[in-house]
Amino acid sequence: MKAVPTVTEPALDPSAGTGRTPARGKPKRRFGGTHAQIRSALKFYKVLAYATGVMLLLVVVEMVAKYGYGSEIIAGGGAPIQLLPEVVAETAGGFNLSTAVLIVHGWLYVVYLIADFRLWQFLRWPFGRFILIALGGVVPLLSFFVEKRIHRQAEEDLAAHPEAAPRY
Prior knowledge:
- The chain is mainly alpha-helical.
- The protein is built from five helices and three strands, in the order αββαβααα.
- Strand 1 and strand 2 (81-85) form a beta hairpin.
């Protein structure tokens, strides 16, 4: 009689398909980009966080001038920088710094949100952290503190997971 060969199944790894590494049993961290891309996004975010923070402080100065003193900040038109009443500022000549600060801050905040989204996407953080970073460009002085915290957390994530592969 001929012996029927038995087919043995390969040993099943209990962690297979769970996204866990067998050695440590904790989830394997995956980023949305390489470490170099994440560090680049982190630098871009840092620059924009400081620029947005400075522009937001200038917006506060502009709002104090406008609503506290009823004046516009004008450069040129007889003096290097002057506070003129809104009615006079329109005809005084010179460059209206109040309007320029508002426009520049608005567009800079849009680019800040792009930097925020890029960093959030690469690190695959929860959505709440994206909102927290976005609020950093709205509340005066907050962008400086949020940037420091986010930068530290991103560096900790990268250091804790040097083996983390990008998603592609």
